Known about the structure:
The protein is an alpha+beta fold. The chain is built from 8 helices and 19 strands. Residues 350-354 have low confidence and may be disordered.
Amino acid sequence: xxxxxxxxxxxxxFAKLSTGDRDEINGMQKEFETHGWCFIQLPxxxxxxxxxxxxxxxxxxxxxxxxxxxKSSNAFGYTCVDHKEGIKLLTDQYGIKADRRPLLTDDVEQxxxxxxxxxxxxxxxxxxxxxxxxEKTNEELTVLSSxxxxxxxxxxxxxxxxxxxxxxxxxxxxxxxxxHYDPGLFSLSIxxxxxxxxxxxxxxxxxIDGPNNSQLDQCNNIGVIWLGEAISALTEDRFxxxxxxxxxxxxxxxxxxxxxxxVCTNAQVDSILENDDTPLVLPENTQIQIxxxxxxxxxxxxxxxxxxxxxxxxxENERGLSMSKVAVEHLTIRYPMTKKKPSSNSFFSKxxxx
Length: 354
């Protein structure tokens, strides 16, 4: 059977991968070595995800006042910023890790459990295949966490994108989420209800539109796998990081619901779970460069006594990138020449590149 394509990029068939089809595995490996991502045809009943989508959309359509009852005080559970809202969870082979967050409505919790089961089956197969490609020993793979991270995001899209998309996209004035690569091994995205996701074609240095599962020709369960920094490091950059971004849609007020799950590293999970009770205070005019945001500009500390925690919240508001996707080892802090770096024994300060 001839290969299928989306936007001039091959669609890998999950069913063939799961049977060990060598041609399909080689095709996926070629995409990873060239671009760091691939489109994938998923073997799923449309009704299964449609019911989840309806439940989540109903929850997100509630008033902001109602949803405040469920808002989490940390990175997990339901959170909201100016241009988007979402649900972030840790999952493992036993299901969803329910602590550290307020419970949501019963129907949403049931949908989350369903997603966890769905992802668990797929991720086990994909992780086995992808790790086999790395040719690494079990000892070398101990950097990987037993937890995966489930992300559900609802972009409000109260504005439209420009006719000519920006070459990069430096902040949320230009894009919903700036270009970046994730810290983990890889992510599997299974739903995008509106245009917006774009992936970088490294050969031609251009942006490729991801699947829009609301379109008739793309609603047949086409997902995306993008690779993270961990697998690039394991393969000494033989596998590229999958650089991606989210642009504003062509139509205004067209909300975009998207669902993906990431295979995480221990360091990534630990940095989110760690409760840093001695926050690092950054002096005015300090510059922070974020390594996993290619072609980005330094973030400048303009307010006195701004802490790292508030800076990371600024990153999500101003650049659209959540704290879970920016590992502390990605940060390079440059202090003003007239200032001495502060003394701190905090978890974060031990990991920074001063």
